[in-house]
């Protein structure tokens, strides 16, 4: 299997899983965005603290004023103080959906019906007793109050709350907003008295972490503004309508992919669900005043003035952080952030123009880039060393981090999860596949060549098969042929078990010698062994390897014959160098890695011609020329011989191991042979004297006998 195809298969499998089961991938994306926010978190600016003030119904307020809900006249007093302090707009992250049970009017009616008690004014006045909800409504009517309400998924027959100022461009553009079918509304009197209303709904994602603020919601197919949006509209010097425009994709479907809110010269891009992505502040204290402090300033002019200086001209949000009121939400920075602070942060973000946008096309571009880098990394794994794909991944990582960071600073969210996850995954899959393929090829090489090559050479091929070319090629090679003298007669007089044992031991020794010199066993035919050098791997010194191998085989064969009772093992060897075609030859069912060419036939004939000269090794001049001067071996010229099928004579040599005892004799032989080549008058006598010095020298004996027969030509008779 190709590493690239394996990486592509896994890549598209991940993309398919991402499309079919998006939740885990969305959580991974959210984790990437959270990490980005933490890494690039900003301080709350001074402007941010001054623009929005939170009036906090905290645990200290509950301890001083009493448990929640407070009497509505107490809440009215709180709001009245904020109005008198010239708050720019007052948003209530609270809903008053039921009548105040602590109102004097309700208590009097209850006492009369249950206990038969009559409640009258102590000063004899007439008229109904006060109603706290009416008191709160009158305070609302003084202006600048935005009441909050809740939305629910199931219908409850409550109808649509009063909320104005939101216009839409066309009826179809709400199709992508998540629908709500019920509402938790304020009392009718409070709705009518409030300057505006807005939904305070904030929903966490699948992990319950708040990352977005819904600015537009849908109730009964009508757009509903959020508390944040209504407060911002009211806080503007000249409250204007908010225009909601649908943003459609440029593709064939033209589907809604987001929304734009436009009011008072501002443009707020929204997600397809009508929400705005929040940019949380990491450090700094938000401008917060305890509700108890506000109420304490009611009858203290000095405190009231200090409060007015802090609130005048600013947006005020009233909400709860007390633990018992259960209005704390998880954010990327805080697991227990008061909900009112999240609303305040969204208002600050819009007022600063610090909007985070994730374009609808970002996912497609990220996927394309991730796949492109993954394919590039896998391709480099397949065709180059690993340092190149690793370098590509490092560069892609740095570029992705830089792009994501820069985009975040510019208000554009880029999802790094796919860009940082998919290319390394493709790299790992491609690398593992490459390793698997290499191991499989190595096993195949070991299986295919263990009968031809030495174990060390097989391991070299397995580690780096690039040096192997099996398809067939012409190259210069050196061939070595061996044959055992008298093998036919030995087989005739030997028992089968003796023959098999002796032959196997002999062949094992010869093959071991060939392997030690880097030879490739081409064939074993009976007692004959065919060895080739410079294939399948390059061996620049193939000629000297073959000659050294011939000398060691000769020494092994003599020792083997000396130990065998029948003298079996004496070996003739022929060595030749020349061009040949080497590769896999055969059919679909069986192939053989071998070589073909005239150089092979010449080596075989050189092996056979040893019988004529009485030598054990015959080497061609081509091999001698490529061997050069090698310590521990000496070539002795034999002469030229015209082999069958050849027009020109082939110069032949034998090779011996020089010693102190034979060096002088070999020198005299070489001098006599050179004299014969020059046709010196006394050359024949000189060669006869060399033979007389050492009658056991087969070459000197051959030439002396030939000269005695009247043959002085160094080009010998044609050989069969």
From TrEMBL:
Signal peptide: none
A GO biological process held by the record: cAMP biosynthetic process
InterPro entries reported in the protein's UniProt record: A/G_cyclase, Adenylyl/Guanylyl_Cyclase_3/4, CHASE2, Nucleotide_cyclase
Domain of life: Bacteria
Gene3D superfamilies the record matches: Nucleotide cyclase
Domain Guanylate cyclase: 478-607
CDD domains linked to this entry: CHD
PROSITE patterns named in the record: GUANYLATE_CYCLASE_2 (PS50125)
Keyword GTP-binding carried by entry: no
Membrane spanning residue stretches: 360-383, 390-408, 414-433
GO molecular function: adenylate cyclase activity
Protein name, UniProt field: Adenylate/guanylate cyclase
């Amino acid at each position: 299997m190709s590493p690239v195809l394996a990486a592509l298969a896994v890549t598209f499998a991940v993309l398919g899983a991402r499309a079919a089961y998006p939740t885990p991938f969305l959580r991974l994306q959210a984790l990437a965005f959270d990490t980005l926010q933490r890494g690039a978190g900003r301080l709350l600016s001074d402007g941010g603290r001054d623009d929005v003030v939170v009036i906090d119904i905290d645990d200290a307020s509950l301890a001083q004023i009493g448990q929640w809900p407070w009497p509505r006249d107490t809440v009215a007093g709180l709001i009245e103080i904020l109005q008198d302090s010239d708050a720019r707009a007052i948003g209530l992250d609270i809903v008053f959906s039921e009548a105040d049970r602590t109102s004097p009017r309700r208590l009097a009616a209850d006492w009369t019906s249950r206990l038969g008690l009559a409640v009258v004014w102590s000063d004899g006045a007439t008229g109904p007793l006060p109603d706290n909800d009416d008191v709160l409504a009158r305070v609302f009517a003084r202006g600048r109050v935005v009441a909050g309400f809740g939305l629910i998924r199931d219908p409850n027959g409550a109808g649509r709350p009063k909320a104005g100022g939101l216009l839409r461009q066309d009826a179809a553009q709400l199709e992508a907003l998540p629908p709500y079918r019920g509402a938790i509304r304020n009392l009718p009197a409070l709705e009518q008295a409030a300057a505006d209303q807005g939904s305070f709904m904030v929903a966490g994602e699948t992990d319950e972490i708040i990352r977005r603020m819904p600015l537009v919601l849908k109730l009964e197919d009508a757009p509903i503004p959020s508390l944040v949006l209504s407060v911002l509209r009211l806080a503007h010097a000249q409250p204007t309508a908010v225009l909601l425009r649908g943003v459609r994709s440029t593709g064939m479907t033209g589907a809604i992919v987001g929304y734009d809110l436009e009011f008072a010269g501002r443009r707020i891009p929204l997600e397809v669900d009508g929400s705005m992505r929040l940019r949380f502040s990491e450090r700094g204290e938000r401008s917060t005043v305890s509700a108890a402090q506000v109420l304490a300033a009611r009858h203290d002019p000095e405190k009231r003035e200090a409060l007015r200086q802090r609130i005048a001209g600013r947006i005020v949000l009233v909400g709860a952080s007390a633990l018992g009121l259960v209005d704390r939400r998880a954010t990327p920075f805080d697991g227990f952030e008061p909900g009112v602070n999240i609303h305040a942060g969204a208002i600050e973000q819009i007022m600063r123009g610090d909007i985070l946008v994730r374009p609808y096309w970002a996912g497609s571009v990220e996927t394309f880039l991730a796949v492109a880098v993954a394919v590039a990394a896998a391709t480099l794994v397949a065709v180059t060393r690993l340092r190149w794909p690793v370098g590509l991944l490092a560069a892609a990582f740095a570029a992705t981090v830089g792009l994501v960071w820069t985009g975040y600073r510019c208000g554009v969210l880029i999802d790094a999860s796919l860009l940082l996850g998919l290319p390394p995954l493709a790299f790992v899959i491609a690398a593992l596949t490459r390793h698997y393929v290499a191991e499989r090829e190595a096993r195949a090489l070991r299986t295919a060549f263990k009968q031809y090559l030495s174990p060390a050479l097989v391991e070299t091929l397995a580690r780096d098969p690039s040096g192997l070319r099996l398809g067939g090629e012409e190259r210069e090679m050196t061939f070595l042929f061996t044959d055992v003298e008298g093998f036919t007669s030995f087989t005739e007089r030997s028992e089968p078990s003796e023959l098999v044992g002796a032959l196997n031991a002999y062949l094992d020794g010869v093959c071991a010698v060939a392997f030690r010199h880097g030879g490739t066993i081409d064939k074993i035919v009976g007692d004959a062994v065919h060895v080739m050098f410079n294939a399948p791997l390059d061996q620049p010194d193939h000629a000297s390897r073959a000659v050294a191998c011939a000398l060691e085989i000769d020494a092994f064969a003599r020792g083997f014959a000396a130990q065998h009772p029948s003298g079996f093992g004496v070996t003739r060897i022929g060595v030749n160098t020349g061009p040949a075609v080497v590769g896999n030859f055969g059919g679909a069912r069986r192939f053989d890695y071998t070589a073909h060419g005239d150089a092979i036939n010449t080596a075989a004939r050189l092996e056979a011609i040893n019988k004529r000269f009485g030598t054990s090794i015959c080497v061609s001049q081509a091999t001698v020329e490529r061997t050069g001067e090698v310590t521990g071996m000496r070539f002795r010229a034999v002469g030229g011989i015209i082999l069958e099928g050849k027009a020109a004579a082939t110069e032949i040599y034998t090779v011996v191991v020089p010693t102190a005892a034979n060096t002088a004799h070999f020198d005299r032989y070489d001098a006599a042979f050179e004299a014969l080549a020059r046709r010196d008058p006394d050359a024949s006598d000189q060669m006869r004297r060399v033979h007389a010095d050492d009658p056991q020298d087969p070459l000197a004996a051959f030439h002396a006998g030939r000269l005695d027969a009247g043959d002085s030509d160094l080009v010998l008779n044609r050989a069969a």
